[in-house]
């Protein structure tokens, strides 16, 4: 998830944005299908699953362009029916989401204000705000290490809306979940930090660089970059490509999406060796590796599809038309279901401030996929 509002080049547009018997022995051979799609949230971004409350949480920016867009909040949804249970009020619009299911804390990132909001899911209220002074860092991905109660957040860096200003460095924030404080900042791990994935067992954090097409490897103990290697993306004339990343800890692999080239690359996590490049669709964005199903899921915003890939053979199993602009992914381990948020078509950026939002029947929705 990320959002830019002004002077959108192709780079910044890329920023705005992974037989029944046979199936029993090899889950990846099953044919993935869309079980249901329901319109549940205005301008949905990221989604997380909470097994404790047995609910889905969706970050909804809301419709309209006022200070408080209609429907803004964190929408709480039933994981089987997709019925809206209630909406949690937010002091800042939520884009990225991360959850600690042990402490029942939800963390939302705001790409415009540079703030992380902490929610207590037991009470459904915001309990803390975390910011680097008064800086409006372009926050993006949120990843939680439940065992250490540590939250990691990328700040994009590498660009500025002011052509006369020097672009800020990218960063990875390290937040102490016990005190809700910004404990450390890892400065300039890459040029333009977008995606983030954690292998907690190995003590490694992986950061994708949208501008320079590389992956940085951070040691979570020393909080230093220990390695960098190519992501397998393309350096195009329009700029960035590599966007999001997920990790297969047991298999020693990374999965990286590339928006401009519309591909997923598979890398060795230890060496960065390129194992496979898989075309998925235009605007490849979110990626999620589902180990029990032996499948990889990729949302393709511009292609309006979600790609399902066999994680062993790298065969494309399905191209599912989930919605107008498939955005983010979540997995419910209890039910074995995958969830996709679908953003709607929107007004042009030069539209009048009082223009009515487009009513897109294929947007503002969540889809359930059965692997």
UniProtKB/TrEMBL annotation:
Signal peptide (residue range): 1-30
Region (Disordered): 343-371
Highest taxon listed in the record's lineage: Bacteria
UniProt-listed SUPFAM superfamilies: C-terminal (heme d1) domain of cytochrome cd1-nitrite reductase (SSF51004)
InterPro entries on file: Haem_d1_sf (IPR011048), Host-pathogen_enzymatic-act (IPR051200), WD40/YVTN_repeat-like_dom_sf (IPR015943)
Keyword Endoplasmic reticulum belongs to the record: no
Keyword line: Signal
Listed name of the protein: 40-residue YVTN family beta-propeller repeat-containing protein
Annotated source species: Lampropedia hyalina DSM 16112
